[in-house]
Amino acid sequence: MKRDSLPGCWRDFADALGAGIDRIVLYGPSGTGKTYAALREGVASAGAHRLVCTEDMTAADVTGCWMPTAGGQFEWLDGAAVRAWRGDGVLGGRLVVDEADRAAGDVLALLLAVCDTDGSARFDHPATGAAITPLPGFSVVMTTNLEHPEELPSALRDRFPVAIEIDAPHPDAIELLPEDLRDAAMATAVAPSSRRASLRAFYAYARLRESLEPERAARLAFGADRGREIADALAIDAAELGA
């Protein structure tokens, strides 16, 4: 999609990447395409690697761990951050850190090191003893559903000089929906929390209605009350288009 046709928040994201900013926070309502865009926008051949933060995650998810092999030995498997650092061997990749505010304790400290400036970040590989540092081109995009980036741990927020509020669904993510659902999805994705419905729910609804009645599909995807409202609104839109 052409840059000029993007909503303002997504133009900001594209322009920040284009200017060489390699540490960016995308914050705002869930289900607006933050992760979708982070995994695709400005990602070159080195690829993108996703890290979903939870309270139960360990250092293995971030940097790697020893795993048993079929032969009874152990081999080291790199975590998402180290894979992104290594990239394609020439250029570093993109690390997408989802919901970093949910990380705690030792993992949060590890994320601070991983997301630090390229000149400071370093990991001594347990298998080889080699010092691993991010290859040129490595970038980090962090996503969070927090309404204000200041709610992130201060040391983590300090690693990211640019924070962009996502107040509109990503157009490419909207275009994955059937055409008759796109306007409703755009309107409800950033509605007040009590009226909000994420793009994920619309994707589920689109799939469900292929084999179920629309009302039942809406109830399963959006919940009883909200599903009834959305189904009624879609039916009115369809009737107006057919009039």
SSE blueprint:
Blueprint: H1 8-18, E1 23-27, H2 34-38, E2 48-52, H3 59-62, E3 64-68, E4 74-78, H4 80-86, E5 94-98, H5 105-114, E6 123-124, E7 131-132, E8 139-144, H6 154-158, E9 162-165, H7 171-174, H8 179-189, H9 199-208, H10 214-222, H11 224-242
Parallel strand pairs: 1-8, 1-9, 2-5, 5-8
Antiparallel strand pairs: 3-4, 6-7
Overall pLDDT metric:
89
Helix count equals 11
Q: What is the fold-level CATH name, i.e. the topology of the largest domain?
A: Rossmann fold
Question: Which range best describes the helical content: under 10%, 10-25%, 25-40%, 40-55%, 55-70% or over 70%?
Answer: 25-40%
The second-level CATH architecture of the largest domain is: 3-Layer(aba) Sandwich
- How many domains would you count in the coordinates? 2
Largest sheet: 5 strands, parallel
Distance from first to last alpha carbon: 31 Å
Overall geometric form? elongated
Query: What is the CATH first-level class name of the largest domain?
Result: Alpha Beta
Strand content bin = 15-25%
**What strand order characterises the main sheet?**
2-5-8-1-9
Count of beta strands: 9
Q: Tell me the name of the CATH homologous superfamily of the largest domain.
A: P-loop containing nucleotide triphosphate hydrolases
Overall radius of gyration: 21 Å
Unreliable spans are none
What structural class do the secondary elements suggest? alpha/beta
Spell out the helices and strands N to C. HEHEHEEHEHEEEHEHHHHH
